[in-house]
Amino acid sequence: MNGPLILIVEDEPQMLRFIRASLGSHGYRLLEAGTAQEATQLATTHAPELILMDLGLPDMDGLELTKQMREWTRTPIIVISARGREDDKVLALDAGADDYLTKPFGINELLARIRVALRHVREAASNVSEPVLTIRDLTLDLGKRQVLVSGKEVHLTPTEYKLLALLAQHRGKVLTHRQILKDVWGPAYANQSHYVRVHMAELRKKVEADPARPKLIVTEPGVGYRMRED
Ligand code: CA
């Protein structure tokens, strides 16, 4: 087998068995670390393509480890944790995690998140962002800055366009309010969450069939927004 190499950082034997059985049967190769120290060692020596990170580790909090790893690697990190509060998700994503799954989770959910994260890496590595993205009824031509919904052109303000393009380029992934603000408005605006809410409401009126029940850009309550994958 020659599938992607995944590092699992997890100290609970039961959880480890579950993940091992699930990923192993889908062709992934696995490295296992039960402590932050082992995780750092394996990550530096084996260069895994993706890291699954538990937060409650015996020697260090996984959030701290995520921050440390972000100083030297862009390898996607998916946090898997029993801490399911919105604040915990925001902290993990802002620390540099790419995604967050609350335990207990289903294996299909885990596999889907792994596929998204690995695809983003491949796209970044190929260095050619697709000029035209098609997601459900939406067609976004990044070259022409043109947006079509069900084949009809819609006109967005520059801010709405930036917001839409950002979410589309990270489709499948949750972006926190802070990440969106930094990217669309700039670092000085990182705490102005209401900017995102206001412009998102306007954007949804233009791109969602039913803005009250958005299907394209979904809200992750208290955390941020995610553009659906397909
Ligand atoms: Ca743990």
Would you write up a description of this structure?
The two termini are 29 Å apart. It contains 8 helices and 12 strands. It is of the alpha/beta class. 42% of the residues lie in helices and 22% in strands. The strands form 3 sheets. The protein has a 5-stranded parallel sheet, sandwiched between helices. It has a 4-stranded antiparallel sheet with strand order 6-7-8-9, covered by helices on one side. The chain folds into 2 domains: 5-126, 3-Layer(aba) Sandwich (Rossmann fold), CATH 3.40.50.2300; 132-227, Arc Repressor Mutant, subunit A, CATH 1.10.10. Calcium ion (CA) binds at residues 11-12, 54, 56.
Task: Determine the N-to-C terminus distance.
Answer: 29 Å
Radius of gyration equals 18 Å
- Strand tally is 12
* Global mean pLDDT: 92
Low-confidence stretches: none
The structural domain count equals 2
Strand content: 15-25%
List keywords for this structure.
8 helices, 230 residues, alpha/beta, 2 domains, Rossmann fold, 42% helix, binds calcium ion, Arc Repressor Mutant, subunit A, four-stranded antiparallel beta sheet, five-stranded parallel beta sheet
Topology:
Elements (H helix, E strand, L loop, with lengths): L4 E5 L3 H12 L4 E5 L2 H11 L3 E5 L7 H9 L6 E5 L4 H10 L3 E4 L4 H20 L5 E4 L2 E4 L4 E4 L2 E3 L3 H12 L4 E3 H8 L8 H15 L9 E4 L3 E4 L3
Parallel strand pairs: 1-2, 1-3, 3-4, 4-5
Antiparallel strand pairs: 6-7, 7-8, 8-9, 10-12, 11-12
This protein binds calcium ion.
